[in-house]
Write a structure and sequence with these properties.
With about 140 residues, this protein is of the alpha+beta class. It contains 5 helices and 7 strands, in the order βααβββββααβα. Strand 4 and strand 5 form a beta hairpin. It is globular and about 65 Å long.
């Protein structure tokens, strides 16, 4: 199966590092977006600069007592930034009515999710655990 490169859009911006890691770990763009939209766990500011890391199990199973367990996790690191495409398109509005001005202001407030990295972790991490050194070093190089 051939891996398809995710495309940048108004909502998501994919860094080259994220694309490389997704290809390395066999993650699709749709799977990464699913992790962002429905995370099981969220770790905030673990790499600094208001960066958020979210996790979702690769697949879950039920124990005999009914609790969910998993053997691997998918992590995505992202940052919410202003959408540079929208700001470049928009200029100061000389709108005569308040509604047009309001819509103009709403367009300027649109945010974009910049996906910094995505990876599979072969194991189960505990909440609040810092990033593994190898991953932290790679991300420090990008930021």
């Amino acid at each position: 199966m051939q891996w398809k490169t995710p495309q940048n859009s108004k909502k998501y911006f994919w860094t080259e590092h994220a694309k490389q890691k997704m290809q390395q770990h066999g993650l699709s763009g749709q799977r990464v977006v699913r992790v962002i939209r429905k995370p099981l766990r969220t770790e905030e500011s673990i790499a600094g600069n208001n960066v958020v890391a979210v996790m979702q199990p690769q697949s879950t199973k039920r124990d005999a007592d009914g609790t969910k367990t998993w053997s691997a996790e998918i992590w995505v690191m992202y940052k919410i930034v202003d959408n540079p495409q929208e700001k470049a398109k928009q200029k100061a509005s000389d709108a005569p009515d308040a509604m047009a001005q309001f819509l103009h202001d709403m367009r300027l407030q649109q945010k974009q999710i910049r996906i910094i990295s995505a990876w599979r972790y072969p194991g189960k991490t505990t909440p609040g655990e810092p990033l593994p050194e190898e991953i932290a070093d790679e991300i420090a190089e990008i930021l």
